[in-house]
Amino acid sequence: MSRSEATQPGPARLDIPLDRPGRTVGALRLPWSHDRSAYGQIVIPVIVINGGPGPTVLCTGGVHGDEYEGPIVLGALARELVPEDIKGRLIIMPTANPPAALASRRTSPIDGGNLARLFPGEASGGPTSQIAEGITRLLLPGADYLLDFHSGGGTLDYLPCAFGRLPADKALAARVLDLLVAFGAPVTAVVKRPEAKGTLVATALDLGVVAMATELGGSGGVTRQTVAIAAAGLRRALAHVGVLTDSASGPASASTPTSASTRLLAVGGEHFLRSPGRGLFAPAFMLGDAVAAGDVAGWLSDPERPERTPEPLHYAADGLVICRRVPTLAEPGDVLVHMGEDTTPDALINGS
Ligand code: ZN
After folding, report:
1. What φ, ψ does residue 165 adopt, rounded to 5°?
2. Is this structure's pTM higher than 0.90?
3. Ligand 1 centroid distance, CA of 308 (Å)
């Protein structure tokens, strides 16, 4: 997919130029006619900090409305950073899906759309698809890098991860992996299966943008730890790509760390344990546990048949537990736990 054929021009428009020097505050706007506003709009704040020649980094948060580290740390970055602190340009969209964010929901209350499944978006789609189309058409084409902040949301809890996928192009894959590792989260998870369809990162990679996401916690909230990891990772990533410079002054650079160790994991389909039926899942693990194929992951019990012995569920592979389902009641097909297995950069890039 080339940049020009990503999508037909849609109704979204940007009310600021992206090339103005200095700091510019504006919004991506979409028409949204509804019962309380005949000529209404969905207004998505965008802050551009332009420090002159250098790379462009698009930073997005709040693609899912119940994931909060991104909106918090990107809002802070947009407030604190001054153009003199950087080389290049930051395009910051702390809350990419305001209708979902204001409802504390993963999906949009307007049309039920999941913004992270609708990229590159359709001009004739629903409001959520039109948000995706606007980001793809108006923000991605100028970007060299994308940092898309996610967390587990209300239904998942993650060990804080830099979270990525590697494209088939090895040169681009190597740059993506370097960025993921530079972020320096405690865990760097590279997903091989299941394939991502409709994510902002997938669309960005198709366009040749060096793109990564995060999974920084979840359970529908934040902790001091997850916000700190998000903020430090953001600054490390911006330093890695050369936007935050060593000579920068002011609060934005005062705590810029240079590197952090991370544990590199590969994630495949065999690392996901799904519920075989409806029931209450009692885990046998904690996040961060090392587990082996055949170990008991937990037990599924029937709340309506307490006399029945709970069903033990077993892992299909070895790995480190990085994610658990939060709601105890599970339906058939729900992911109850997923792991990752230790790997190396060479194995990920060259498949050795
Ligand atoms: Zn998300």
Report:
1. -135, 145
2. yes
3. 36
Give distance in angstroms: CA of 105 to centre of ligand 1. 11
- Stretch(es) of the chain classified as CATH 3.40.630.10: 13-266
- The CA distances from residue 72 to 49, 51, 126, 294, in Å, are 17, 23, 27, 40
Q: How many angstroms separate the Cα of 57 from the Cα of each of 47, 195, 241, 247?
A: 12, 25, 9, 19
CA of 153 to the centre of ligand 1 (A): 6
Alpha-carbon distances, residue 284 vs 201, 244, 273, 314 (angstroms): 33, 43, 13, 10
User: Domain 13-266 carries which CATH code?
Assistant: 3.40.630.10
Residue 352 CA to ligand 1 center (angstroms) comes to: 30
Amino acid (1-letter code) at residue 165: R
268-350 CATH: 2.40.50.100
Cβ-contact 339, 321 below 8 angstroms: yes
Domain span(s) for CATH 2.40.50.100 in the chain: 268-350
How far, in Å, is the centroid of ligand 1 from the Cα of 150?
Answer: 4
- What is the CA angle 233-234-240, rounded to 5? 85
Q: What is the mean pLDDT of each run of 10 residues along the chain (352 residues)?
A: 54 96 98 94 98 97 98 97 96 98 96 97 96 98 97 97 96 98 97 90 97 96 97 98 71 54 96 98 98 98 97 98 98 98 96 70
DSSP 8-class letter at 141: G
Rg from Cα positions in the chain: 21
Per DSSP, the three-state class of 256 is coil
29, 15 Cβ separation under 8 angstroms: yes
